[in-house]
Write a structure and sequence with these properties.
Peroxisomal Thiolase, Chain A, domain 1; 5-stranded mixed sheet; globular; alpha/beta; 9 helices; 4-stranded mixed sheet; about 325 residues; about 30% helix; binds oxa(dethia)-CoA; 2 domains
């Protein structure tokens, strides 16, 4: 086969704010229970950013750890792609603020917005820049402070989300073009804006001049999630020339343990090969996949040469999957 350029993982890190909120804390202010949250979602606790902590701060901490993990300095990075729905400011992008915070004076940085699928779209964007020769080394960050857009009187949503950030560095390396190569091997992306009402924020710069609060039709979204995630994960694998039996680790978006289980079952992957962090992080939207990847890399589960399948869905609806060999 002819040599091809692959986008290969070569550094990862994550950051979680210090404050941990256990399910039981919500019992004081809402008609809810640890038991309900745990059994319906798998969530046990989540982290919330301190009042002074912004999405930039979380992203910067994760970015520094990814650089350290890869043995790189800030000027070794050509581009930062940052996925978030809770940017520090309307503009400039959170990515450029991270760039400044790292002391990176070259290259370029920008944000992508695909809500909970943001990290998948961010990886796809980095991959496109790497294979086209526009950048050699790209840092993809997922960072969120969803605690800032929660309606604390809505028990159906405010118990579900958390704050955090994860960062992955992808580097151009030569491969053979076959499925045994390291790097991103298959990508599948979708969106359908007619599903807006299932998950959205009821505010915005151009509409209300406020950030607004998150609104969700949970049960309806649940049904779409299981079907669409299994389909997109299969499609990403097919593009890589692989089947689900070859997958070492599924790293799903961490919204609900029941969605994660049903999707794994549809894919035919046993739960022993699925990375689950929802119990400790809740749903951190664009940060959930890189957080889970980083945790599993740090504890030795994800190893060099293993096939990782990441999949996510969220507001838009937007959904997709990436198959990559570590
Ligand atoms: O990240 C983007 C992707 N997100 C998702 O994919 C989320 C998808 N949806 C879900 O994960 C689930 O639908 C939820 C976790 C949001 C809800 O779970 P559910 O099993 O679908 O519950 P439900 O909304 O059907 O509610 C069942 C009952 C209702 O009471 P009634 O009408 O049966 O009396 C709710 O009012 O549970 C009630 N309920 C609660 N009870 C205690 C809803 N939230 C709570 C709560 N505590 N926090």
């Amino acid at each position: 086969m002819n040599p091809v350029t692959r986008a290969v993982p070569c550094g990862i890190g994550h950051y979680l704010p210090e404050r941990v909120v256990e399910n039981a804390e919500f019992e004081a202010s809402l008609d809810t229970s640890d038991e309900w949250i745990r059994t319906r979602t798998g969530i046990e606790r989540r982290h919330f950013a301190a009042p002074s902590e912004t999405t930039t701060d979380l992203a910067l901490a994760a970015a520094r750890r990814a650089l350290e993990d890869g043995g790189f300095g800030p000027d070794d990075i050509d581009a930062i792609v940052l996925a978030t729905s809770t940017p520090t400011s309307t503009f400039p992008s959170t990515a450029t603020q991270v760039q400044a915070g790292l002391g990176m004076r070259r290259g370029f940085a920008f944000d992508v917005q695909a809500v909970c699928a943001g990290f998948i779209f961010g990886m796809a964007s980095a991959h496109a820049m790497i294979v086209s020769g526009q950048a050699r080394r790209v840092m993809v960050i997922g960072a969120e402070t969803f605690s800032r857009i929660l309606d604390w009187s809505d028990r159906a949503t405010c118990v579900l989300f958390g704050d955090g950030a994860g960062a992955l560095i992808l580097e151009a390396q030569e491969g053979t073009g076959g499925p045994e190569d390291r790097g991103i091997l298959g990508i599948d992306l979708h969106s359908d804006g007619t599903y807006r009402g299932l998950l959205y924020v009821d505010g915005g710069v151009s509409s209300t001049q406020t950030a607004g609060f998150l609104r969700m039709q949970g049960p309806e979204l649940f049904k779409h999630a299981v079907v669409k995630l299994a389909e997109t994960a299969d499609a990403a694998l097919a593009r890589a020339g692989l089947e689900s039996g070859a997958v070492d680790w599924v790293v799903p978006h961490q919204a609900n343990l029941r969605i994660i289980r049903s999707t794994a079952q549809k894919l035919g992957v046993p739960m022993e090969r699925v990375v689950v962090t929802v119990q400790d992080h809740g749903n951190t939207s664009a940060a959930s996949i890189p957080l889970a990847m980083s945790v599993a890399r740090a504890d030795g589960r994800i190893r060099k040469g293993q096939l990782v399948l990441a999949e996510g869905i969220g507001g838009g609806l937007a959904w997709g999957a990436v198959a990559l060999r570590w």
